[in-house]
Structure formats: structure tokens, C-alpha cells
């Protein structure tokens, strides 16, 4: 069974100032997403599911179908704040959906094959998709429904020179088994070039440059989204009334690991990550993509 690629594309990119998923970065006006689709197709993925907001559908579907429908099967899922497993008080006061874990939950009806998860606005590199495809095709791993894969990147290769970012900070053992993953925010360089961040408790931390981090590049067995429902329900019971609370995918995986009901493997990947968090990131991303194209990678 060919794996599915789940693309999280519902965010409008508030820090970027527009729909960054559709910003041209390639020499012929390509989006970052175009490179991800290209890499996924040549790695052997058979279907792409885009998680979007319903009001985006007409324009997003028109654009993506014109680009990709002759290359791979396409499907669409809507991430809406009202799509929750339990009733939430004062939900009308909330402006945004519930984060990356909720985005995967929103696509649950489309995920009947082993699947990978990526962000639409991150450039992961060809090796990441090949690594995920190999992992998802491994029958010995996929027979264990509680084994997941994470493509990890070194923190210093994922930062923006123009502001702070959020990352899932990973701890692994000598066998590359993921021991824990914790979402950190406000990650950025200080004047002395050290890297600081805030953990989930709001405490400031100093992070080494080679810290392994998650950029929401995951591999999961078929039907895994069903495991999110009880976790999402528990999250809503505790945090549902908070206007800006988010159900992060890395936090959900971390909870399963801590409960000893799952394990995750850090998958090898030396590809360079590129991302557009702020509009000022665009020139450097375009330069890097141009270099990859000139080298024959694309």
C-alpha cells in the first residue's frame, strides 16, 4: 500500500503577513509546497491530503488541482474550531482552531494508509521524504501499530535570523529511540549567539546548537489518527476554555511515549531545512532553492 502525505496548510502565517504557503520561492515561481509534492511523488507516496480552512477551499483546490492532479491523488480536509470530540464552553470566543494535533484529527477519515505529516510552508528536502517512505513501507515496523517515525533536524539549521520560532525539542537514546519531545517557543539567538527558548512551563532555557528538533515531519501507521481522539478530549477538558491553547502533535506523541503505549524512532536525514516564518526570510530561501536547482537536485 502506498503511503499518504498529510499536508498541514490551514495556517495563514500571521507572522509572515499573508498566505505564505503560496509565496513563490523557486526560479519559475514554484511554492515550497511544489518541492514537497515533487519529492513525495518520487519517493513513492500515492496520495496527498491537504488540511485547510473551509473558506480557503475554492482557491486552494483550484491551484493545487491544476498543479498536482495529474501526478498524484488529492484529497482535502477542513480544520475548523467546532470539530471537537466533546462540547467546549465559550468556543465562540476562540478565533483559531486547536493546533497541529487537531489538524491531523481533522483529516482522520482520509488516513486509512500509513501516512506522513508535514507543514505546507517548510522545505524538508528529498532525503526526508525518502526516509519517511522507507520507514512507512517497513512491514516489521508497521505491524507494530505503536511505532512512529520522526525526521529530526539540528536546531541551528532551523532558526530564522529575523525573529523567534517554535520547535519540538527531542531527547533520544543511543539507538535513536525518541524518549521525549517538548514544545518550546520564543527560540532565537541572543547577542552572544547563544540560543535561548521557553519551555511549556514558560521557563527560559539555553539550548545547544545541535539539539535535535521536530518540524512536524512524522510517519504514522494506518488509522493512527484515531489515537488522537482520547488525547484531544482530555486536552479540551483541561484547556478548552483557554482562548489560545493549542493541541500540539509533538505533545500528543510525547504523552503516548511517556505512557509507554508508543515508541518513536528518529529517522536519519541530512537534508537542509528551509522555512519562511517571516517575510524577511524569503531572499535567503530563494537563494538556497536556486542553488539546489542549479546543482541538479530539482
How is the topology of this model organized?
Elements: E1 4-8, H1 32-43, E2 47-52, H2 57-68, E3 73-78, H3 100-106, E4 115-119, E5 122-123, H4 126-136, H5 139-142, E6 147-154, E7 165-172, E8 177-189, E9 195-198, E10 204-207, E11 212-220, H6 228-239, H7 249-258, E12 263-267, E13 274-275, H8 282-294
Parallel strand pairs: 1-2, 1-4, 2-3, 6-12
Antiparallel strand pairs: 4-11, 5-13, 6-11, 7-8, 7-11, 8-9, 8-12, 9-10
Helix pairs in contact: 1-4, 3-7
Report on the architecture of this protein:
With 298 residues, this protein is of the alpha/beta class. It has a single domain (4-294), classed as Spore Coat Polysaccharide Biosynthesis Protein SpsA, Chain A. It is built from eight helices and 13 strands. It has helices at residues 32-43, 57-68, 100-106, 126-136, 139-142, 228-239, 249-258, 282-294, and strands at residues 4-8, 47-52, 73-78, 115-119, 122-123, 147-154, 165-172, 177-189, 195-198, 204-207, 212-220, 263-267, 274-275. A hairpin with a 5-residue loop joins strand 9 (195-198) and strand 10 (204-207). Helix 1 runs parallel beside helix 4 (126-136). It is globular. 41% of the residues are buried.
Provide a compact summary of the structure.
With about 300 residues, the chain is α/β, with parallel strands linked by helices. It contains 8 helices and 13 strands.
Question: What structural keywords apply?
Answer:
298 residues, alpha/beta, Spore Coat Polysaccharide Biosynthesis Protein SpsA, Chain A, five-stranded mixed barrel, 8 helices, 13 strands
Amino acid at each position: 500500500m502506498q503511503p499518504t502525505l498529510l499536508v498541514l496548510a490551514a495556517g495563514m502565517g500571521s507572522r509572515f503577513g499573508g498566505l505564505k504557503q503560496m509565496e513563490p520561492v523557486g526560479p519559475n515561481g514554484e511554492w515550497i509546497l511544489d518541492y514537497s509534492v515533487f519529492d513525495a511523488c518520487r519517493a513513492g507516496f500515492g496520495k496527498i491530503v491537504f488540511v485547510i480552512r473551509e473558506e480557503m477551499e475554492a482557491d486552494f483546490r483550484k491551484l493545487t488541482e491544476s498543479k498536482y492532479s495529474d501526478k498524484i491523488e488529492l484529497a482535502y480536509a477542513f480544520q475548523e474550531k467546532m470539530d471537537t470530540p466533546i462540547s467546549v464552553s465559550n468556543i465562540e470566543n476562540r478565533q483559531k482552531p486547536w493546533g497541529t494535533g487537531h489538524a491531523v484529527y481533522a483529516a482522520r477519515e482520509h488516513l486509512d494508509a500509513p501516512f506522513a505529516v508535514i507543514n505546507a510552508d517548510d522545505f524538508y528536502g528529498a532525503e526526508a521524504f525518502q526516509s519517511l517512505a522507507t520507514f512507512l513501507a517497513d512491514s516489521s515496523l508497521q505491524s507494530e501499530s505503536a511505532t512512529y517515525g520522526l525526521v529530526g533536524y539540528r536546531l541551528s539549521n532551523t532558526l530564522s535570523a529575523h525573529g523567534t520560532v517554535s520547535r519540538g525539542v527531542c531527547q533520544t537514546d543511543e539507538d535513536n529511540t525518541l524518549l521525549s519531545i517538548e514544545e518550546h517557543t520564543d527560540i532565537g539567538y541572543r547577542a552572544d549567539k547563544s540560543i535561548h527558548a521557553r519551555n511549556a512551563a514558560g521557563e527560559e532555557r539555553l539550548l545547544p546548537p545541535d539539539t535535535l528538533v521536530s518540524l512536524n515531519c512524522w510517519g504514522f501507521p494506518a488509522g493512527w489518527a484515531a489515537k488522537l481522539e482520547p488525547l484531544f478530549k482530555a486536552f479540551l477538558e483541561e484547556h478548552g476554555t483557554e482562548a489560545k491553547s493549542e493541541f500540539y502533535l509533538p505533545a500528543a506523541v510525547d504523552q503516548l511515549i511517556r505512557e509507554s503505549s508508543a515508541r518513536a524512532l528518529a529517522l536519519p536525514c541530512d537534508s537542509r531545512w528551509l522555512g519562511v516564518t517571516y517575510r524577511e526570510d524569503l531572499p535567503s530561501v530563494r537563494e538556497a532553492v536556486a542553488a539546489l536547482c542549479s546543482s541538479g537536485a530539482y
